[in-house]
Structures are given as structure tokens and as C-alpha cells.
Amino acid sequence: MSLLAAAGLWGPPGLLLTFALHPALCLRPAPTSGPPHRDYCVLGAGPAGLQMAYFLQRAGRDYAVFERAPRPGSFFTRYPRHRKLISINKRHTGKANAEFNLRHDWNSLLSHDPRLLFRHYSSAYFPDAGDMVRYLDDFADRLGLHVLYNTTIAHVTLNKDRQAWNGHYFILTDQMGHAHRCSVLLVATGLSVPNQVDFPGSEYTEGYESVSVDPKDFEGQNVLILGRGNSAFETAENILGVTNFIHMLSRSRVRLSWATHYVGDLRAINNGLLDTYQLKSLDGLLESDLTDLAIVKDREGKFRVTLKFFLEEGNQSADAITLPQDDNDNFAMRVAYDRVIRCLGWNFDFSIFDKSLRLSSGGEFSKKYPLVKASYESKGSRGLFVLGTASHSVDYRKSAGGFIHGFRYTARAIHRLLEHRHHGVAWPSTEHPVSQLTSSIIRRINEASGLYQMFGVLADVVLLKEAGGEVPPCRLGPASAHSHPPHRGRFLDGLDRPGGAHLTSEALPGELFGHRSAKLLCSNPYTQWGARTHNPEIKRPSLHQPGQPATPTPAIFH
């Protein structure tokens, strides 16, 4: 089946997620017995879940979203604790192009309704979290999305069945014991489990998720904050003016987003503590690995920091334990603290998933993210996809896939993969005469939001064909497995930051194939050529071949 679609739009619907497209599967009848069946189940009615629901709704698919709260966006009813988002709401750009404006709108979800742009819900550059709750509520309501509220999925397991699309069904059991069955499971539950480090005295810490947000509760106190991310600095910013001092302890130095160009690092809006530290006030930043330390409570009820080694030497009273004297020694750490606050980030909640799904963590990201392929499909279970923040392992610290302005586009790409795999719907494309190729690509680079936000992950593919001819059926495959002659007509268009890996190693994730690069495999033996490639053997063909018309037409997948 050719990936070419004869019609489509060159604008916002564009973008190809660069992974292999599986052959479309024949639709099979839903099971006639057992629990209620749906083709698609979405866990979570946060931004990622609602975004996927929108695409499923527009495609007329059989789906349901399961949400434990009575309304969508329940995460934002509680977080961030101090209510100010750090996602940009830039309402004015001087441009009328809607796609370009989405580059600078980090809160809106994709839809056909211009009323559902976040700029209509807040005029603040950094909006209040309550505005996001109101926005998501309207998004679900106005679009008529199928959300089952007050439905907590307590357990998810597999039921093997050869008649199922993926060789099994997913069985979801809710808090009432009712079972739900689906062919494809889309997990959009985010990161919800507070990260905790086990060290002696960790029971004395207060978590970011529960600590008071009233500055009056910290007046005249010495406060130690564990962590160095936005939640730690957000907490410090809230109490900076009422405390005696704040010390912030982490195992490495603070990473500033303006220096790293990664939006998940410390943002300028939260870095007031850096000012007071650098201007020689009483606040301070301390560096040490938490696993080497211990917190003890003295007879006055105050907390002191020491080395775990000293604590393990014998059964000593808190007042007799030696304070650090080696490389971890820091005069500031010898002072007693009134409060110790833990701000160490979040992990994915694996507890509801049965072992049969093999949805596991591991590798570089330990407990934080589930293991997924470059296509965001679970490495353990075909047909299980991870959306939103929890899918950020694919582009962690590289792109914006862990945030709304990034994962709204990866959700769209996943939906297009599902449309092609299960419903035989070709990836959207459009055709242009070759005379417009250069201007079309330049326009995409200057305007496209998905390419702009998800650099190194999303790309456009351009295929050339001779006038009157057909573009051959193509798929992405591993470069090392390219056994037949290469072909003419490959052009990848993607955006990348300076110093990033070249397109063939980063925009085509080798993880899916076990290779570091991939090529576009087509049935016709043309000459292959690529953009921004480091392969000197790939040469750009002349668009005017002897004996052929001078105006071949490129087919563009996006």
C-alpha cells in the first residue's frame, strides 16, 4: 500500500514521525462475549489524553477516555502548588499565521475550533494553573469528547486472543470492579508518584506535594530544600522573604534553561534564590549526594545534617553524632534547620499495570519513565502506547516531548500511525510541482510549529516522481538492512538545534530497528539522495534527466 495520499493540507496537519509504518491490519470483529469492548481506551483526561481523544473523535473511532476525577485536568487543580505555570502564553506575535503562532503558544491543544486557543483563557504570559483547568474543561465539553469521569482504573491486564488486532485485548478494571476491554490502550496518566530517596532521616522531610504554601508558616525559620529543579525553586521563591535563610541541597549544580535550551531546566521566573545567593545574602546552594547523608533530630526538635557513615558507627544520641569533616564538610550545613522539604520530581505510576503487559522501567531513566520504542509504543506490549509527559524518555533533554507544546504533535503522529496500521488510512500528504519545492520547504521551516518544537523527532519526507509517473510504495527501514538498490526521491526536512546530531542519526530513531540510521525503502531502483546527510556517496540527482520531462512532481508526506 502506498503511503501517498492524493489530497491533504500543507499547513498545520503536517509532520511525519520518523519511524517505520507497519502494514495496515485488517479490521477484525469485536468479541461478542465478555466485558464491553472499545477499539481504543485512553487512560487520563489531562492534556495528552484529551488531545488524543480529539483525533479519535474527528476520525469517528470507537473510543473512551477514563478519568478518575470529576473533571479533566485534575493534575492542574493541585499543581504547581503555587499556581503559576511556566509555559508561555504569548498572545501577540505580529503574525496572522495560526501555525506560526502555535510556536509561541505552549498551552493550546490542537483542534479545528479557534475558540479553543489558550489566549482566550488568560492574558498572563505565565498563566495561573486554574486557567488551564478551565481551558481543558471547555476543550472536552465543546468538542463532545467521550470521557468517563469518576472512573478510576485500578488494574490493567492482557487477554490473549488471535482475533485481536495486536494478538491480545487489554482488560481494564475500575474501582467498582467493572471490566472494560479494548484493542489499543493509550496511557496518558503523566508522572504522579513523588520521587523519594531513602536515607537515614528521610522520614523527617515534608514533600512538595503536601508542604504548606502559606508563607506565614515559615516566618523566622531555617529551611533546607532537597532538590534543584523548578519545584524546588518555586517553593523557595514563595518563602524567600519570610525565612531566616534557605539552603538548597542537590547532588549537582543547577542547570539553567537559558543556558541548556531545555525548557525543563530551571526557568528564570523561579530563580530568585540564585540572586540572593550570588549577591552574598544568607541563602545558599549546597552540593552533595543525598544517599551519603543523614538527617537527625536533636533534643530541641530541630534537624541537623550529617554523613550516613557517622550515623552507622554506633547507637549514639542525635546530639553526639559527628558533623561532616571531610569533602562534604560545609560550615553552612552545621546549622540546625526547622524544616526540610523534599522537591525531587516525579515518577510514572506502574502499580496498576499487570506483569503480563511488561510495561517496565529501567535503563537510563530508572523509575521515571516506562520503556517505549521510538514510536511511543511499549517495548513490552504491542498496541500499548504512552502519551504526554510520561513519553518523554524518547527525547529527554533533547526536545519538548514532555510538555504540552511538544506532545500535542507526537500524539497526532501516534494517531496517524494507528490510522494507517488499523484502518488503512494513508499518512496525510500533498503534491506540488517541483518548481514550488524550494519555496514550500522554506515556508514549512519558517512556519511549522511541530517541526519547530519537536526538533530531532519529527520531520517531513519529500518523494520525487517523474511527470505522469507514480511514487513507489515506501517505508522507513534500517540502513544496514538495505539489500536492494537504493532509489531516487528521498528528502527529509527537519529542524535541529546547533550542535545536535545530524538528521539520519537523530530524526530517524534507530532504536526501533536496533540500528543508528535508517533509509526510506521503495520498490523502484532510483538513486537515493538526502538533505543534511554525512554520507558522501549520496548525491543529489538532477531534476531534469535526459529523455524525461523537465518538471517532475514531488510528493510530500508530513
Automatic annotation (TrEMBL):
<feature type="region of interest" description="Disordered">
    <location>
        <begin position="478"/>
        <end position="498"/>
    </location>
</feature>
<dbReference type="InterPro" id="IPR036188">
    <property type="entry name" value="FAD/NAD-bd_sf"/>
</dbReference>
<feature type="region of interest" description="Disordered">
    <location>
        <begin position="532"/>
        <end position="558"/>
    </location>
</feature>
<keyword id="KW-0256">Endoplasmic reticulum</keyword>
<keyword id="KW-0325">Glycoprotein</keyword>
<feature type="signal peptide">
    <location>
        <begin position="1"/>
        <end position="26"/>
    </location>
</feature>
<dbReference type="GO" id="GO:0036503">
    <property type="term" value="P:ERAD pathway"/>
</dbReference>
<keyword id="KW-0285">Flavoprotein</keyword>
<comment type="function">
    <text>Probable flavoprotein which may function in endoplasmic reticulum associated degradation (ERAD). May bind non-native proteins in the endoplasmic reticulum and target them to the ubiquitination machinery for subsequent degradation.</text>
</comment>
<comment type="similarity">
    <text>Belongs to the FOXRED2 family.</text>
</comment>
<keyword id="KW-0274">FAD</keyword>
<comment type="subunit">
    <text>Interacts with SEL1L. May interact with OS9 and DNAJC10. Interacts with TXNDC16.</text>
</comment>
<dbReference type="InterPro" id="IPR050982">
    <property type="entry name" value="Auxin_biosynth/cation_transpt"/>
</dbReference>
<dbReference type="GO" id="GO:0004497">
    <property type="term" value="F:monooxygenase activity"/>
</dbReference>
<keyword id="KW-0560">Oxidoreductase</keyword>
<protein>
    <recommendedName>
        <fullName>FAD-dependent oxidoreductase domain-containing protein 2</fullName>
    </recommendedName>
</protein>
<keyword id="KW-0732">Signal</keyword>
<dbReference type="GO" id="GO:0005788">
    <property type="term" value="C:endoplasmic reticulum lumen"/>
</dbReference>
<dbReference type="GO" id="GO:0050660">
    <property type="term" value="F:flavin adenine dinucleotide binding"/>
</dbReference>
<dbReference type="Pfam" id="PF13738">
    <property type="entry name" value="Pyr_redox_3"/>
</dbReference>
